[in-house]
Specification:
By secondary structure, the protein is an alpha/beta fold. 23% of the residues lie in helices and 17% in strands. It folds into 2 domains: 395 residues, Alkaline Phosphatase, subunit A (3-Layer(aba) Sandwich), CATH 3.40.720.10; 64 residues, Arylsulfatase, C-terminal domain (2-Layer Sandwich), CATH 3.30.1120.10. Strand 11 and strand 12 form a beta hairpin. Helix 6 runs parallel beside helix 7. The longest helix has 22 residues. The chain is globular and about 70 Å long.
Length: 516
């Protein structure tokens, strides 16, 4: 398999070859038959090394943590060995997934929005939610937002745009999210934690209204003195929050809301779309003692990997709800992550590597910063197997739009590639020629054409660019040999640099455009 550092197990290869001739009996998209539901799970900081299916299959070793639910789904679906998050960092990936645009097209090229920052989404702009909602689906967003929001200054109509941490008593009203959230992006229902598990703010919202976490909840300045668990405040510091905030119960709450949305959707007449943005496995790593009766805390070598166990159990809840309601067979199920995995010094002593054989981790321009778990399941429609096509989770917008029959207006979702023909094994799939990519907070950007990847150092405003490194991922998948100063490849680095600048400065799309 190209672009993968470790060979595919011979036994799996044989199995896939045997499976390939099997015909899919379900009706084709656009033909008679029920329209499929869609469930898209975006995990937080989940690396390839966190999914035991990847570790066993592609690294040929025993995993440090087991993920039986994710493994079972992966075996039923199409696994992308060259699958990526839109960037190597949380918030810019979430913008790219929602808009189908690379982050440099937003007003914030670096792609980090304060809790109280203005939205990056423009009115009437196609979004992940709107393209499905426009087709008559009931749409739901549950989980981590991390893309700003509109909260009013008390006693007035102005929106607060100041710092997110510290004692903001009297400065911002966090009892209602007036805009800039999932409701403005095509979601009929939302249950949102604006900052995921790390805050601030340490609050949850149902349909934009504060959702008290306990009967006696109050909005307080949440700090080390009054928090149930001071560890919950993390490095982000104290700030506005629910007095009952408890990171150990957040995954239980969010996945229960997801189950409720599925059950309501299954009882309705229209298909549903659930975008589930779990905040696991981001820090703080606060595993619950149990989840649905299964032990979690202390079941692995570190609290970080305990959270991987909890994430897998959250996914199990969702899968079980689909099966219990008779909807699993008629659901396109996609799993991805917002960036690469997290380093874990404790688990590393036991053989854990967050990126599953690739160099780097979250935030890095190396492959491990953005090459993540990415697979799709649709029983009877997507043949189980492995693909080495270059795909990105921001491709879901164009893919879902094609699935439900919503045309994406010209000039929108310019970096989202329609994967539907690839998923279904149909003719007409047009792969991307080039990938324009972004790393983390150190402002590196990347361009990849084929096996060649140029890393570029930019400044925060994306006005200055200098080539930093050049790698060939076929010959050097772990990116140990920088070819930038190699005379044999001087022209290649220069041409890739020119192409990157031309793409970004011209604003042209980075994916093949549909023919009129």
């Amino acid at each position: 398999m190209k672009n993968h550092p470790l060979r595919l197990l011979p036994a799996l290869t044989a199995l896939l070859c045997l499976a390939a001739p099997l015909a899919c009996a379900a009706p084709g998209v656009g033909q008679a038959g029920p329209r499929p539901n869609i469930v898209f799970i975006l995990a937080d900081d989940l690396g390839l090394g966190d999914v035991s299916h990847h570790v066993r299959t592609f690294q040929e070793r025993e995993p440090v943590v087991e993920t039986p639910t994710l493994d079972a789904l992966a075996r039923q679906g199409l696994w992308f060995t060259d699958g990526h998050s839109a960037t190597a960092l949380c918030a810019p990936t979430r913008y790219a997934v929602m808009s189908g645009n690379n982050n440099y097209r937003s007003y914030q090229p670096v792609g980090v929005w304060s809790t109280f920052g203005k939205t990056a989404f423009k009115p009437e702009e196609a979004t992940l939610g709107s393209v499905v909602q426009d087709a008559g689906y009931r749409t739901g967003f549950i989980g981590k937002w991390h893309l700003g929001g509109d909260f009013k200054v008390p006693g007035g109509e102005a929106f607060y745009r100041g710092p997110k941490s510290g004692d903001l008593t009297g400065k911002v009203d966090v009892t209602r999210m007036h805009g800039g959230g999932p409701k403005d992006c095509g979601f009929d229902y939302d249950f949102t934690v604006p900052c995921g598990i790390q805050g601030p703010v340490y609050t949850a919202y149902e349909n934009q209204v504060w959702y008290p976490l306990a009967d006696d909840s109050e909005i307080v300045f949440l700090n080390d003195e009054n928090a149930i668990h001071p560890k919950d405040l993390t490095s982000k510091g104290p700030g506005p929050g629910d007095s009952a905030w408890n990171a150990r119960s957040l995954g239980d709450l969010l996945s229960a809301k997801a189950v409720g949305f599925i059950e309501a959707g299954a009882a309705g007449e229209e298909p549903f779309f659930l975008y589930y943005c779990t905040p696991m496995v981001h820090a703080p790593h606060c595993p619950p003692e149990t989840f649905d009766g299964q032990p979690v805390a202390g079941t692995t070598v570190s609290a970080h990997l305990d959270m991987v166990v909890e994430l897998d159990l959250q996914v199990k809840r969702i899968v079980d709800a689909l099966k219990r309601s008779g909807q699993f067979e008629n659901t396109l199920f996609v799993v991805s992550s917002d960036n690469g995995g997290l380093g874990d010094k404790v688990a590393a002593k036991h053989g854990y590597h967050p990126s599953g054989g690739w160099s780097g981790s979250k935030g890095s321009y190396f492959e491990g910063g953005h090459r993540t778990p990415l697979f799709a399941v649709w029983p009877g429609r997507i043949r189980p197997g492995v693909s080495d096509e270059l795909v990105v989770n921001q491709d879901m917008l164009a893919t879902f739009a094609a699935l439900v029959g919503t045309p994406v207006p010209a000039g929108q979702a310019q970096d989202s590639l329609n994967l539907l023909p690839l998923l279904l094994g149909d003719e007409g799939f047009r792969p991307r020629d080039v990938l324009v990519h972004q790393a983390g907070s150190r402002q590196q950007v990347m361009i990849r054409r084929g096996a060649w990847k140029l890393v570029i150092q930019s400044n925060g405003k994306r006005t200055q660019f200098e080539p930093l490194a050049l790698f060939n991922l076929d010959d050097d998948p772990r990116e140990k040999h920088d070819r930038l100063e190699d005379p044999d490849h001087a022209d290649r680095g220069r041409l890739l640099m020119q192409e990157y600048l031309d793409i970004v400065q011209s604003g042209r799309p980075t994916v093949p455009q549909a023919t009129p």
